[in-house]
Write a structure and sequence with these properties.
By secondary structure, the protein is an alpha+beta fold. The chain is built from 17 helices and nine strands. This is DUF2851 family protein. InterPro entries: DUF2851 (IPR021272).
Length: about 425
């Protein structure tokens, strides 16, 4: 037995319409379960409960045992002074408020059906699944319910990313262009160097990028140096030496701190080498001076793709690293890479910016992401293995949210699909 089941029983109104009695033989009628609280304090706010023919409005606290009240030191916490009902699985001790009054207690173990307990055990407490708890039942869930929940999960994912963007916005004094630069740097760094690139982008005032963006080679010098790529030993390449010399000048001019660490190359395919990505990033900012305004203005995928039709400078046509000749090829951004930029940077930034303007672009953004092909990763493959096909990037993003924030954390009873399965035949 886990406390989340008791939260489910109370919050999902499983006890409504039942003749209930407190452990002190008081008649209890639940009028409204209240609002679930995700933070510190009682579990449900503003519940409405009739106890012994008297209506009470206040908070409800839920525990497995009554004695948990004291184990959690609620008796000394003023946040719990307004608890009108203590809901427990087992009543093992009387519980009193700070003023000495007895808190009415509802013991649930005599009111929960065997069917509900069995469904819960099958869903959460059975043997460890290969992928997710409901893997044997997922394919049989009504498609409309699944699609509706995935839609909500995608919006939830955008909200979480928006909160992360808000934090970056505070760090750069509400400079949206600076935030876009940070987000793009993280995505150009990919999984291997993303955090490193983001950290370096945060350490560089975007005003400096603006000042040098009129000269592509100066901009490249700044970014290659700032991202730790100009500390190559024994490189006599003329292009490299020019960049290195320019960066030394920029260090003094803008009072920048030299970097001692380097990005990773190991485990990356050559087109994803940080040298190539930094050159492409420099090309982007050399091409577009007002990138943020442009990104906020465009509405179609084709228009976004046109912004990111960039190629690393000609030096990289026959190089992947400084000083080493390679087979000649243009280093363009691939469509799949641009799709990742749209998914992870453009759409979340548009969502956040719309909120700042008091606008709702959600439907338009969902239409936009739904036009992108689904992502390919182990999570999406896992859902396909249990019979759940993924149609587009909106669904793949939603399934990543589902798997990461619900399935792997056993939050089945906060998942619309988990509660649907638990409600069967109860």
């Amino acid at each position: 037995m886990k406390e989340d089941l008791l939260h489910f029983i109370w919050g999902q109104k499983k006890l409504h319409g039942r003749q209930l009695t407190s452990t002190a033989n008081e008649a209890i009628t639940i009028k409204a379960p209240g609002v679930p609280n995700q933070y510190s304090g009682p579990d449900f706010f503003n519940a409405q409960v009739e106890i012994d023919a008297q209506m009470w409005v206040g908070n409800v606290e839920i525990h497995l045992k009554s004695s948990d009240w004291y184990a959690h030191h609620h008796q000394t916490d003023s946040n719990y002074d307004n608890v009108i009902l203590h809901v427990v699985w087992e009543d093992d001790i009387a519980v009193f408020r700070k003023d000495g009054s007895l808190i009415p207690t509802l013991e649930l173990k005599n009111y929960v059906s065997e069917e509900l307990l069995l469904n819960y055990q099958n869903l959460v407490e059975k043997a460890k699944p290969k992928f997710i708890n409901c893997e044997k039942d997922f394919a049989g869930i009504d498609l409309f319910l699944v699609e509706h929940w995935l839609h909500r999960l995608y919006v939830e994912r955008l909200e979480q990313k928006s909160n992360q963007i808000e934090a970056l916005l505070k760090k750069c004094n509400n400079d949206w262009e600076g935030v876009l630069f940070m987000l793009l740097a993280k995505n150009f760094g990919s999984k291997v160097n993303g955090d490193f690139f983001l950290d370096r982008a945060q350490a560089l005032q975007f005003s400096i990028v603006r000042k040098v963006s009129g000269s592509l080679e100066v901009l490249e010098s700044l970014l290659f140096g700032h991202f730790g790529l100009l500390s190559v030993e024994d490189c006599s390449d003329h292009y490299f030496l020019r960049l290195q010399k320019e960066y030394q000048y920029l260090l003094r001019k803008f009072d920048l701190l030299p970097i001692l660490t380097k990005p990773e190359f190991f485990g990356l395919r050559p087109p994803n080498f940080p040298t190539i990505r930094v050159s492409q990033l420099a090309q982007l900012y050399g091409k577009e001076q007002g990138l943020f305004a442009l990104v906020m203005e465009v509405k179609t995928l084709d228009d976004i793709y046109s912004i990111f039709e960039i190629t690393a400078t000609s030096y990289w046509d026959d190089h992947f690293t400084f000083g080493k000749i390679s087979k000649k090829s243009k280093k363009k951004l691939s469509k799949s890479f641009m799709d990742l930029l749209v998914i992870n940077t453009i759409i979340p930034l548009k969502f956040c910016y719309a909120r700042h303007l008091g606008l709702d672009w959600t439907d338009d953004l969902i239409t936009l992401v739904s036009a992108i092909e689904k992502e390919q990763n182990s999570i999406i493959k896992g859902f396909e293995n249990i019979g759940s096909k993924t149609k587009n990037a909106m669904e793949s993003q939603a399934k990543i949210q589902l798997h990461t924030h619900y399935c792997t954390k056993n939050k089945c009873l906060r998942c619309a699909l988990g509660t649907h399965l638990l409600n069967r035949n109860t």
